[in-house]
Amino acid sequence: MKLVFFDIDGTLAHGLEVPASTQSAIKQLRKNGHKVLICTGRAISYVKKYFAQYADGYIAFNGRYGEMNGKVLYDHPVSPEKIHEIAQVLREEGAGFAFYNLDHGYFEGSDEDFVMMSKIWEPGFLVRSKQEKIEAYSCDVIYQSKVQMDHIALRLKDSCLFNDHGAHPSCDTTFYGIDKGTALQAMAKVLNVPIEDTYAFGDGCNDVVMMKACGHGIAMGNGVDDVKKAAEYITDSIDQEGIRKGLEHYELI
């Protein structure tokens, strides 16, 4: 049995659309006895709502929460102090944002952005709130321009890394200390699977650590340069059956 980890945005899916070739490849991968884990910056509620049919387990919030077969394997929220620090910078920069825990998303920003973000959640999950004395796992930022987002990233470069969602002007956040790479290794250890039997597919900056942590890192053809440099193998893009071709390259399907 191998463990195969997949990022969502730009790797497994465009928005909510999973290519037909990817769907069939993952179905065959699981049929062959391997375990599929989604490894994403998205909130666990989002992942389960839209992608549960493709996975045996999940790493959500860029490594801060992990589940396998319905069992929570680790749980590492961000401190309220760090949340306050990030929120202050985002307010000063005029960006919309939402902090997520397991129960809710706490949103600040324009009515337009709130409506846009609310569409992807169950009714009542996303609420307007300036409450910061909470434990949260991740933060989404809604920006107005690339210049604005670049400036935010520069101000917070010592605290976190931002990864763009691509489908709309928003990004998720990796808080330093715990990331997709540390989570991947923790999951493999708990499941008693050697690192050399782990594979990871990704395309974004927050997937670089995953490429380095796993036994075999596979970068998507549409991925950023840094993730391609860190990968063992570069497959085709998401739109050119990259997942299927990558799995075939390693004879997993």
TrEMBL record:
- Which PANTHER family does this one have? HAD SUPERFAMILY HYDROLASE-LIKE, TYPE 3, PHOSPHOSERINE PHOSPHATASE
Molecular function GO labels: magnesium ion binding; phosphatase activity
Q: Which NCBIfam families did the record assign? A: Cof-subfamily, HAD-SF-IIB
Q: Which organism is it from?
A: Intestinibaculum porci
Pfam families given in the database record: Hydrolase_3
User: Could you identify this protein by its name?
Assistant: Haloacid dehalogenase
One GO cellular component this record assigns the protein to is:
cytosol
SUPFAM superfamilies to which the protein is assigned, alphabetical: HAD-like
Which InterPro entries does this UniProt record tie to the protein?
A: Cof (IPR000150), HAD-like_sf (IPR036412), HAD-SF_hydro_IIB (IPR006379), HAD_sf (IPR023214)
